[in-house]
């Protein structure tokens, strides 16, 4: 059965929470412009306002705030297999201690932003004195007014015996970021694309932003649950949005009118983090993957990509429209077009033939955009009188899955339109790739074609 909440478990939960709140205070400090007096003043004003808001809530609606703390404690206790008894003295005391820590962290923020010189060990002492509990026996506290000249050499972080998280079989001193760095190195060796490695790294960094760069062995389902709760209140792509990227997590949570990211998006993040967690298990850093089975339950909605209707295809392929936006496309910023001159490779519009063939190739072959954009002349081969496109996976070309390695016949309609003649002309010009004009970016060769169709062509005919 589930365990009852005892004194040692309360101490361990409080130690972890104190660590998180100290890290949160450091995040606020690091987000302050210390090179500007106004920046420091604004940060201190913001901290003062947050402290005032919390005290007003506690004064006017204590039950509401207790319910918010109850939600957090519920996820923590359940992850440790501890029974939640809200009416017990132990639980109510723990809840009050959490509220005291939320008030205390505002003072820690002020101390850091104002460069008071206080250390994390002194913040831990503040917490012990405020809560009246001996939580850090390995740290010898000195009275607050002890002259600094008499202080013995500071205790190194790795000398402090961190209490073992109950559900882990072994400890690892590797921090999350250290594990992430090695994980990325291994993914490079596994030939994972730079884009995908960056996505893994961003999700891990987002997790660190919430729980801190703690030893990987201290990550439990409690931290993952907190991450999910925080993510459910944040907008999607906040790091890319000019509207949100300068705001801290706390500021975003307090900001009204934000449309949060979907549960599906949060689950995508958890999928990436779970891959990382499984890797950490295989390396022996942790005994269990804390991200496993943490996805939100979501009803599947039929909101996939909607295919073009027959009427839309006819409108797109109408000669006067299709040619205007593909082989005859002229960039409005190219001055040579204003005098009727059509250069071989017009400025900003050198991809006309790519635009012309790729859409036709897609509807007649079913190839993915990047598979078409990366085609080499050597990928087109004639076997027993039939032309095929060989979609392969090697150092120059990439496919999405192992099942994507295949050969696709060239459609008769493409033959009639002159696709094979076009290939022959490129061979005579000693080109290597079918769409040689396209340049490779982080996402492959698709960027210019996708932008042209999605931002120019298709919006213009709707």
TrEMBL record:
Gene Ontology MF annotations: DNA binding
UniProt keyword annotation of Nuclease present: no
Bias-annotated ranges (Polar residues): 147-164
Chain spans, region Disordered: 147-166
Keyword terms: DNA recombination, DNA-binding
Biological process annotations from GO: DNA integration; DNA recombination
Name this protein carries in UniProt: Tyr recombinase domain-containing protein
């Amino acid at each position: 059965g589930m365990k009852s909440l005892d004194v040692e478990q309360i101490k361990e939960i409080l130690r972890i929470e104190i660590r998180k709140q100290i890290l949160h205070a450091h995040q606020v400090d690091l987000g302050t412009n210390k090179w500007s007096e106004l920046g420091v003043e604004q940060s201190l004003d913001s901290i003062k306002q947050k402290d005032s808001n919390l005290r007003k809530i506690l004064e006017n609606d204590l039950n509401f705030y207790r319910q918010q703390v109850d939600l957090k404690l519920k996820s923590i206790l359940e992850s440790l297999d501890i029974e939640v008894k809200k009416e017990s003295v132990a639980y109510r005391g723990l809840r009050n201690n959490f509220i005291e820590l939320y008030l205390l962290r505002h003072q820690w923020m002020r101390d850091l932003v104002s460069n008071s010189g206080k250390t994390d060990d002194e913040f831990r002492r503040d917490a012990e004195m405020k809560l009246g509990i001996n939580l850090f026996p390995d740290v010898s506290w000195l009275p607050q007014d002890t002259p600094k000249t008499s202080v013995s050499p500071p205790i190194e972080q790795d000398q402090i015996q961190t209490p073992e998280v109950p559900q882990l079989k072994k400890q690892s001193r590797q921090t999350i970021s250290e594990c992430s760095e090695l994980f990325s190195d291994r993914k490079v060796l596994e030939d994972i694309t730079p884009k995908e490695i960056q996505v893994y790294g961003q999700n891990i960094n987002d997790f660190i932003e919430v729980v801190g760069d703690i030893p990987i062995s201290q990550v439990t389902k409690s931290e993952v649950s907190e991450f999910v709760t925080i993510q459910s209140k944040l907008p999607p792509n906040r790091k890319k949005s000019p509207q949100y990227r300068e705001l801290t997590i706390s500021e975003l949570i307090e900001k009204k009118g934000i449309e949060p990211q979907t549960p599906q998006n949060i689950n995508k993040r958890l999928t990436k983090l779970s891959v990382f967690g499984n890797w950490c298990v295989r390396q022996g850093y942790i005994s269990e993957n804390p991200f496993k089975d943490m996805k939100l339950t979501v009803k599947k909605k039929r909101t996939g990509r909607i295919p073009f209707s027959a009427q839309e295809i006819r409108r797109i392929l109408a000669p006067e429209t299709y040619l205007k936006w593909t082989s005859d496309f002229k960039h409005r910023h190219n001055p040579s077009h204003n005098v009727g001159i059509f250069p071989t490779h017009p400025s900003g519009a050198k991809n006309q033939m790519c635009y012309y063939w790729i859409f036709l190739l897609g509807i007649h072959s079913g190839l993915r955009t990047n598979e078409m954009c990366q085609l080499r002349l050597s990928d087109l081969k004639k076997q027993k009188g039939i032309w095929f496109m060989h979609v392969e996976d090697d150092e120059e070309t990439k496919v999405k899955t192992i099942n994507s390695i295949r050969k696709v016949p060239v459609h008769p309609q493409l033959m009639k339109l002159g696709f094979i003649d076009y290939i022959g002309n490129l061979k005579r010009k000693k080109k290597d790739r079918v769409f040689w004009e396209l340049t490779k970016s982080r996402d492959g060769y698709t960027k210019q074609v996708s932008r042209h169709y999605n931002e120019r062509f298709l919006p213009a005919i709707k």
